[in-house]
Amino acid sequence: MVGKYATETILADATGIARAARILRDGGLVAVPTETVYGLAARADDDAAVARIYEAKGRPSFNPLIVHVQSVEQARTHGAFNPTAEELARKYWPGPLTLVLPRCDDARLASSVSAGLPTVALRCPAHPVMRQLLAECAFPLAAPSANRSGFISPTTAGHVLASLDGRIDAILDGGPCKSGLESTIVAVRDDGRIEVLRPGPLDFGTTASADGIEAPGQLASHYAPSKPVRLDATEVAPDDFMIGFGAIGGDCTLSSSGSLTEAAARLYACLHEGARSEKPRIAVAPIPEEGIGIAINDRLRRAATPPD
Ligand code: TXA
Ligand code: MG
Question: Are 30 and 139 a contacting pair, CB within 8 Å?
């Protein structure tokens, strides 16, 4: 144990899920599986519990969190749904879509969850373990990705442990995440316009950018391993850890068959492997800018941008 807490790994069966719900109820921090990436959950209606998320991640307090809910009914008590938001929720929930909506004045949420913004980010996840957990908790769960701030998102319990062991109470191990990329974030405006704040597994065609940096996850450098990353690499230098795609091979491959879905699911595992390897640099083969490839390239560009 490195940090303050003896982080417990809990198997995600019925007993384990009930145990995780109890830890959360008492204000604890539990890393939880979702269909996108592992989240670091705390009850969203408790300021002290939410503060622990920021502390464990080393996350700047101006960067708001996503609130995970069991149902659209529950979501409506936190955010104001106009017809566009209703339609998006009907179509894509439960699933990898986060809606940024005006925060209800009487929302029973810690104020730190939305970092003082007048909006709140809401998501109803599809992962069966997370759904069962939300059903057992009478409260919503705030959950950013379960990694130290600025680093690569976790898609396995092992990734979570590597970054947060000793800093959180428990990990609910539900196996590897299916989708592997964080949810698509869409802001719904009063007039029904939508803006994609973060591209993700759901492809809304554009990466329309908001005025200024609205989702801090849009910062140029994010999701970064701790060594230089070169993109669109078609040749391997001797000190490269090469991440291949399609016909271009490497030390590991995102998808040897050229499947973008498989590449999304494997992206963070490959970046974690590259970060751990003895090679001083990471190179990544070109990924087509289409479908979920848009979100993959978005994350790769941030991984390749050195932090300020
Ligand atoms: O798939 C996911 O979305 C995962 C799983 C765990 O649900 N969560 C995740 O959370 O990726 P996080 O904290 O790593 O990214 C959330 C992003 C951040 O860039 C944050 O700035 C943005 O959502 N965000 C949260 N609330 C917001 C708001 N009210 N307005 C605009 N952006 C917001
Ligand atoms: Mg994150």
Answer: no
